[in-house]
Amino acid sequence: MNTIVPLISSGIAGPLGVLHLPRLWLKASLEARGRLAPGYPGAGKGYDQMVIDGLGLDRDALLQYIKTSRPTYPQFEAWVKANAKNLNPASIASLNASIKGYFHGDATRKSILSANGLPDDLASFKDAVNLNNLDDWKEFHEAVLK
User: Fold this and answer.
1) From CA 145, how far away is CA 137, in angstroms rounded?
2) What value does the mean pLDDT take over residues 40-46?
């Protein structure tokens, strides 16, 4: 069985307007089916946990729902809407700002850029969303296109 590199960016939002939520759904769904590429957590401690905490969701309930119900993305958002304790414009704006404003440490940034053959200079990405995109694209290339 092939595994899949999750290519939905943390910078993407679904209809609820929550950044990273589509990626969380994809990663957790893939992990629940044993299809998530090695090295990717289904629901990790970074952006995944930021979204879970920011929306006031129960982590275990979210993962159980995905595992047992196998929801489409709109079905998942309906579940989030029904279960989130913090789903209002202000909390979404705050969460999205946190996601956009997160930066990896110097070592992680340099490692991702170097692995992609890019210099760490003034023109380089500094934010985690874009650095993670580069990392995903490299992993996808290694797993599928090389």
Assistant:
1) 10
2) 96
Output the CA–CA distances (angstroms, integers) from residue 27 to 22, 37, 56, 145, in the order listed.
9, 9, 19, 21
37: left (phi over 0), alpha (psi -120 to 50) or beta: beta
- Residues β-bridged to residue 36: 4
Q: What is the DSSP letter of 89?
A: H
Secondary structure element (H or E) that encloses residue 32, with its range:
helix 21-32
Q: Span 76-101, mean pLDDT?
A: 97
Find the mean pLDDT for residues 118-129.
91
Report pLDDT for 1.
Answer: 65
Task: Answer yes or no: is pLDDT of 8 > 90.
Answer: yes
Cα distances from 65 to residues 36, 79, 126, 141, in angstroms, run 17, 8, 35, 31
C-beta of residue 77 within 8 angstroms of C-beta of residue 71:
no
The yes-or-no verdict on residue 26 having pLDDT over 80 is yes
Cα–Cα distance measured from residue 6 to residue 40, given in angstroms and rounded to the nearest whole number: 8
